[in-house]
Specification:
By secondary structure, this protein is of the alpha/beta class. It is 39% helix and 21% strand.
C-alpha cells in the first residue's frame, strides 16, 4: 500500500460514506469509518491515520468539537472538514477549531481526493513524486516535467495525468478517468477524448518515446515500453 493513505472518515450519512469508499478504495486509500463524533474521536486518538475526513454536523459531538479535542490532545493529523455551511464565519470557525481544509457539500469526489493528497503530502514534510520513465509528477504542487522540461497543463488534463500515473502501468478505465475530471457530473458529450488528445500532445508530442497508450474498449494507460507485456 502506498505511504500516506490511511484515512479515517467521520460521517453519519451512509450514502456519502458508501460513495467515499467506492471512490477512494480503488485508488489505494485504506479507510476506517465512524458514524458519530465520539466514536470518531476515540478512533482518531487510538489509531494512526494520515488524514481525517470530518463532517461538521454529527450525532453526539459535532465536527468542530472533535477537532478541538484532537488538537488539545496534541494530535497533528490533517483534518479535512465537510459541511453544508456556506458562510465565511462558519469556515473561519472551523479553521479556528483546528481543521486544515474545508470542503462544502455537494463536492466532486475527485476534488476531495486531490485535497486529501495535498494535506497528506504537506504533513509528511516531503514531496510525493509519481514517475514513469523520464516523466515526473509532484502530487503536492501538481506540477509535471519530462526530461527536465516543465509541462504546461490545465486542471482537467492534470487530473488525468495524475490518475494514469497512480495506476501505471495498469489500464485506467474511461469511467474512472471521467470521474477524475468531472466527479459525478460527467457531461453527455464525449469530452474525454479531447482532453486525452491535449494530454498526449503535451506529454508525448515533443519526445521520441511515447508513454500514453489507448487500450481498445477499456481505457488508457501510461507506461514505458519496458513496462508493457511482451
Amino acid at each position: 500500500m502506498p505511504v500516506g493513505r490511511n484515512v479515517l472518515v467521520i460521517e453519519d450519512n451512509p450514502g456519502l460514506v458508501a460513495n467515499l469508499f467506492g471512490y477512494l478504495e480503488p485508488r489505494a486509500f485504506v479507510l476506517d469509518v465512524a458514524l458519530d463524533g465520539e466514536a470518531g474521536l476515540d478512533l482518531a486518538l487510538r489509531e494512526s491515520y494520515d488524514a481525517i475526513v470530518l463532517d461538521w454536523m454529527l450525532p453526539g459531538m459535532d465536527g468542530p468539537a472533535v477537532v478541538r479535542k484532537l488538537r488539545d490532545a496534541g494530535s497533528t493529523v490533517p483534518v479535512l472538514m465537510l459541511t453544508a455551511r456556506y458562510e465565511l464565519d462558519d469556515k473561519i470557525s472551523g479553521f479556528h477549531a483546528g481543521a486544515d481544509d474545508y470542503l462544502t457539500k455537494p463536492f466532486a469526489l475527485a476534488e476531495l481526493e486531490v485535497r486529501l493528497e495535498s494535506l497528506i503530502a504537506r504533513s509528511h514534510g516531503r514531496r510525493q513524486i509519481l514517475q514513469v520513465g523520464d516523466l515526473q509528477f509532484n502530487v503536492a504542487t501538481r506540477e509535471a516535467q519530462r526530461a527536465g522540461v516543465k509541462l504546461q497543463l490545465y486542471t482537467a488534463i492534470t487530473n488525468l495525468l495524475q490518475a494514469l500515473l497512480k495506476a501505471s502501468p495498469a489500464v485506467v478505465q474511461r469511467g474512472a478517468l471521467e470521474s477524475a475530471i468531472w466527479g459525478d457530473s460527467v457531461p453527455d458529450r464525449d469530452l474525454l477524448r479531447a482532453h486525452m488528445y491535449e494530454l498526449r500532445k503535451r506529454v508525448d508530442g515533443p519526445f521520441p518515446v511515447k508513454l500514453i497508450r489507448t487500450v481498445t474498449k477499456l481505457g488508457y494507460r501510461i507506461a514505458t515500453p519496458l513496462d508493457l507485456d511482451p
